[in-house]
Amino acid sequence: MPWTFFNSSGEAMIQDGGLTIANNTNNYVVTGTGVAGASLNGESALTFDGTILTIAGQIAFPASQSANAGANVLDDYEEGVWTPGISDSSLDPEGDDKSQGYDLQVGHYTKIGRLVTISGNITMNSVGSMTAGNTANIVGLPFTSKNVTSYSASVHFGNGSGLAIGDNHSIAGVILLNRVYIDVKEWDATTGVASAMTVAELSADGHLEFSASYIT
């Protein structure tokens, strides 16, 4: 039989045969013609078939993450910029403690849940006082990588110039556990082993373009 829920003011709130939630005082008016759909103030807002349809096509997450450990829970979305820098084994977080110089430092990121996707573009004009034989690292990642045994994420270098590397050598990179920097590698051995790229191989005018995805 038909039924209706009323609020304390006598307004019909929920009715059988369709969904109606009315509260004009607070400017909420939700109506519908059955379980297949409903509207909010006349705009498509909700569906009842397991999907969500937003009015403006947007879902807003809070500025501070409301973390949830559930494997099937999306609890964060963020996009922004970061500033990639080059450091030697001192691992200066900003990549400038040894007077390194740059013509270009551009980085972008998108974070969806625990997955972070980054891109970066660096052009040096001076290695400053970094030690030539020390390893070259890209510092300044926007989030710390996942801290779990044996975790690693690969970094793809799509373009470069001004590098002092050998013929037929290529650049690679890896983000290991609990880190905010990239270990830059060089494929330079016939045995297929990637060794650490040095500051000298980067050179004073080295240019690198790269991207990666990693888990926080």
What's the topology here?
Layout: E1 4-6, E2 12-15, E3 20-23, E4 28-34, E5 37-40, E6 43-46, E7 77-82, E8 85-87, E9 101-112, E10 115-126, E11 137-139, E12 152-161, E13 170-176, E14 181-187, E15 194-196, H1 199-202, E16 207-215
Antiparallel strand pairs: 1-2, 3-4, 4-5, 5-6, 7-9, 8-11, 9-10, 10-16, 11-14, 12-13, 12-16, 13-14, 14-15
Key structural traits:
ten-stranded antiparallel sheet, 1 helix, 216 residues, four-stranded antiparallel sheet, mainly beta
Task: Describe the 3D structure.
By secondary structure, this protein is mainly β. It folds into 2 domains: 4-46, no CATH class; 77-215, no CATH class. The chain has one helix at 199-202; strands at 4-6, 12-15, 20-23, 28-34, 37-40, 43-46, 77-82, 85-87, 101-112, 115-126, 137-139, 152-161, 170-176, 181-187, 194-196, 207-215. The longest helix is centred in the C-terminal third of the chain and has 4 residues, at 199-202. It is elongated and about 80 Å long. The protein starts with a strand and ends with a strand.
For the termini, the CA-CA separation is: 53 Å
Q: Would you count the extended β strands for me?
A: 16
Number of helices: 1
Beta content comes to: over 45%
The outline comes out as: elongated
| Overall pLDDT score | 83
Level of helix content?
under 10%
Poorly predicted parts: 23-30, 33-37
Tell me about the biggest sheet? 10 strands, antiparallel
What structural class results from the helix and strand content?
A: mainly beta
Order of helix and strand elements from N to C terminus: EEEEEEEEEEEEEEEHE
Output the radius of gyration: 26 Å
Total domains:
2
